[in-house]
Write a structure and sequence with these properties.
By secondary structure, the protein is of the alpha/beta class. Among the domains are: 253 residues, von Willebrand factor, type A domain (Rossmann fold, 3-Layer(aba) Sandwich); 50 residues, no CATH class. It is built from 14 helices and 15 strands. The protein has a five-stranded parallel sheet with strand order 6-5-7-8-9, with helices on both faces. The protein has a four-stranded antiparallel sheet with strand order 4-10-1-12. The N and C termini lie far apart (78 Å).
Length: 538
């Protein structure tokens, strides 16, 4: 009885203290303090594991309910009033002088933002300054041991994120060997202890991506990078199933695989935080169309010198040039989906061409038999691949490190972009959720400066807003476990192993590819039925 009385007395005292604290007036923000919205208070607002899934809506158009606030209250003794909604737009702005050095002394009044050519009111303003070094006298950078550590550390404003996407499908073996040294040197010399980095490949599941502060581990992985552009030898079961396709079809599949992986990577990074993230896209660009002498109906078959020589005669014909143009437009159309996702998730793509200052696209190793492409054909192909890299970077607020003698300077520019930039936010004045592209223009009133910002954003549709406002409740984990226990998986049949992939088909349709292979029968001790009929073919 005495314990119950003491517990009740303690609860009453605790409640009185809480009421007294709630009645205290709010402390006004200090004058001249940098304006900061809710979405950028890294650890306190984004460190929680459950908030990672809002990355897409936070970055592109501020589509969640935790958007940047209206912080005019810091000038007049009022606390900041936070704003949010599906119409809130956020823009990262990089300002540099004529010497390519960052300009960090601008104020909100120095900026002007236009959407669809009309000025909008800036409601959020903040200067982001990060050097990648721990605070003097503070604790050392925390090591990343699990997903929870990754989410907590990535959400911090003082942490820079870099992911190396090694596109082995579009890098020649010799160039993959030469690009290793500058990339490893960049990691060792320009990155700092708090920087989080990762590495990804086209066929790597995005769920396997792990950001780390163990920079030496990523450097060792880069040291094994092995390109295989124009090498169609299958290395896994997925590639074996289309190894006998034509070379043009294989190139299209490779383009789709890489673009899909880039979209997945951008979405994964967007789930970590709304601040700026960087993707180093190591690639020689997307191939829209091979020259006639490199086309084969069976990519796994060796080239036929007689057929190659006959096909080379039409490489500069009007029909061939027209087909090249349409192929390039198709690549640009699919690229739009990539930088659209990158913009929504605030992931800047820095395309790095390992060819450096490239005079030609095709070499003797690419066409061992038959006549080489003409200078005109080669020039068109080189320009086309470089343009895909430029478009991808420019449209995602990155830089294209293309056609350069040295790659280190371009990588240094990327680090500088991530270290000094302005974060602006405003509420869009568009009427309705039209699902259209809305261009954004950012101007600075100071002369003699270079301004870079995202080109615009794709607005939500009415269906998107409906999904955000009325999310479908997920099935509870215990229910999922119970259902899984009574519903055996497809693979438990022990007959076949399957893989399903999709790609864009003709006339706006989707092409679905189902690949399966028979599994060997298992004995009764392993849960199988022992002897059985062999799986047939389709």
């Amino acid at each position: 009885m005495l314990r119950l009385r003491l517990s009740a007395a303690f609860l009453v005292c605790f409640a009185v203290v809480q009421i007294g604290t709630a009645q205290q007036p709010a402390t006004p923000a200090p004058q001249g303090q940098t304006r900061q919205g809710q979405g950028n208070q890294g650890q306190s607002n984004q460190g929680q594991s459950g908030q990672g899934q809002s990355g897409q809506s936070q970055n592109g158009q501020g589509q969640n309910g935790q958007q940047q606030g209206d912080e005019n209250g810091q000038q007049g003794g009022k606390p900041p009033a936070f704003r949010g909604g599906v119409d809130f737009v956020r823009v990262d702005v990089i300002v540099s002088d004529k010497k390519a050095q960052p300009v960090t002394n601008l104020t909100e009044n120095d900026f002007e933002v236009l959407e669809d050519g009309k000025p909008v009111k800036i409601e959020q303003f903040k200067l982001i300054k990060v050097d990648g070094n721990p605070v003097p006298g503070g604790p050392p950078p925390k090591q990343i041991r699990n997903r929870n550590d990754e989410e907590l550390e990535a959400a911090r404003d003082d942490v820079r994120i870099f992911v190396f996407f090694m596109d082995d499908y579009h890098v020649r073996k010799a160039n993959s060997m030469s690009v290793r040294t500058p990339l490893i040197r960049f990691i060792q010399q320009q990155l700092r202890p708090t920087d989080m980095i990762g590495i990804m490949y086209p066929l790597m599941p995005v769920s396997d991506l792990q950001l780390t502060r163990d920079h030496e581990k990523i450097a060792n992985a880069i040291n094994t990078f092995d390109g295989r552009k124009f090498d169609y030898t299958p290395r896994n079961i997925v590639e074996q199933n289309y190894a006998r396709y034509s070379t043009d079809q294989v190139e299209r599949i490779r383009n789709d695989v890489v673009m899909g992986a880039l979209q997945g990577l951008a979405t994964r990074l967007g789930s970590l935080r709304e601040g700026r993230k960087n993707i180093v896209f190591v690639s020689e660009g997307f191939t829209a169309m091979l020259p006639p002498q490199m086309r084969r109906m069976d990519a796994s078959a060796p080239a036929n010198p007689i057929e190659s020589a006959a096909a080379a005669r039409v490489q500069d014909s009007g029909r061939e040039i027209t087909n090249e143009w349409f192929g390039q437009m198709d690549v640009y159309s699919r690229l739009r989906d990539v930088y659209d996702i990158a913009n929504k998730n605030n992931a800047a793509v820095y395309s790095l061409d390992p060819r450096g200052l490239a005079p030609f696209e095709y070499g003797f190793d690419d066409i061992p038999f038959g006549p080489p492409p003409t200078f005109a054909t080669d020039r068109r192909a080189l320009q086309a691949t470089q343009d895909t890299l430029r478009v991808l970077s420019e449209e995602s607020d990155g830089r294209a490190i293309v056609n350069r003698n040295t790659l280190e300077q371009g990588l240094a520019d990327m680090v500088r972009d991530s270290s000094f930039y302005y974060l602006l936010g405003y509420t869009s004045t568009k009427t309705g959720n039209d699902g259209k592209f809305h261009p954004i223009t950012v101007k600075v009133k100071r002369s003699g400066v270079d301004v870079r910002a995202r080109k615009g954003y794709w607005a939500l549709t009415a269906a998107d807003v409906e999904k955000i406002n009325n999310p479908v409740s997920e099935v509870a984990k215990p229910v999922q476990t119970a259902l899984a226990s009574i519903a055996p998986s497809v693979q438990s049949g022990k007959y076949v192993r399957t893989w399903i992939g999709t790609e864009r088909g003709e006339n706006g349709k989707t092409r679905v590819t189902l690949i399966w292979e028979p599994l060997p029968p298992q004995g009764p001790s392993l849960g199988g039925g022992g002897r059985r009929e062999q799986a047939g073919g389709v």
